[in-house]
Amino acid sequence: MTGQGKTWQSTQCPAAVIGSEVRLIALDADDTLWDCQSHFEKVEHRLCEVLAPWCGAEEAAAALFSTERSNMQQLGYGSKAFTISLMETALRMSKHRISPAVLAELVGMGKALGDMPATPLPGVESTLQQLHRQWVEQRGLQMVVFTKGELLEQEHKLMRSGLKHLFTDSFVVSNKDEDAYRLLCHRLQVEPTQLLMVGNSFKSDVAPALRIGAYAAHIPYHVVWQLECSEEFDHPRLVRLNAFSELLEQLQPLLQ
Fold it and tell me: 160: which residues sit within 8 A by CB, 6+ positions away?
């Protein structure tokens, strides 16, 4: 999951506001609730180191990204897909001269990603606890995890995070496109206009939600996977936040 750094400056449109009709809050998981991308970047950095006899770091990183992109349709997202792309890249760029010991090391690092820490990011747990009390318990509304990736991997991360009990349900999909958002609304019996999607990826968490008529809250993370980079835009149903805890302020009128 090749990434790149990103500095965020809030440019929230003054007219942006979360509508009172919202009945469902859906939250992304990786890099929204807990850190994910930085763990993948550590493995990528190690790949660049072991490929140094054959190519530079930029070339190695670009080759990994190209392999991930070509494997995406067949393998999807997650540490298993990443590990396969890692091996393919190491073998191709070294012309199959990389040692079995180094390959074994990379496989081990890739497998370890499946057990990466899922420690909640700053402000996440306290914010979700308050939302659970006011949104779920007091108002009887729904708050779910809606993320993409490999099913068991995402389920295990949610369990390790200690946050599962704060959600009414969780959904893992292969891709978060417009059809996936429509299906989520259908399953939970809400209209698209009653959905608020919260996440770090403009491409996956914001744009498709807005296109079906939902609301979106964008909380950028300090690193972005290249496949999640996309052009951003302002929208009257989009709020931009600098920290997860700011979500409470945006939702306060709905929690009265």
Answer: 117, 118
Exposure of 56 by Cβ count < 10 A (0-12 exposed, 13-18 middle, 19+ buried)?
A: exposed
The position carrying tokens 């200690």 is 162
Ordered per-residue pLDDT tens for the chain, 256 residues: 444 433 333 444 444 679 899 999 999 999 999 999 889 999 999 999 999 999 999 999 999 999 998 998 888 888 999 999 999 999 999 999 999 999 999 999 999 998 999 999 999 999 999 999 999 999 999 999 999 989 999 999 999 999 999 999 999 998 999 999 999 999 999 999 999 999 999 999 999 999 999 999 999 987 665 666 667 888 999 999 999 999 999 999 998 7
Q: Please, are residues 68 and 82 in contact by the beta-carbon 8 Å criterion?
A: yes
Asked if residue 3 lies in contact with residue 226, where contact means CB atoms within 8 angstroms, the answer is yes
Which residue's entry shows tokens 């079906």? 212
CB 224 within 8 A of CB 4: yes
Nearest 5 degrees, angle CA 26-CA 39-CA 3? 80
Q: Please indicate, yes or no, whether the overall pTM of this predicted structure exceeds 0.85.
A: yes
Amino acid letter, 179:
D
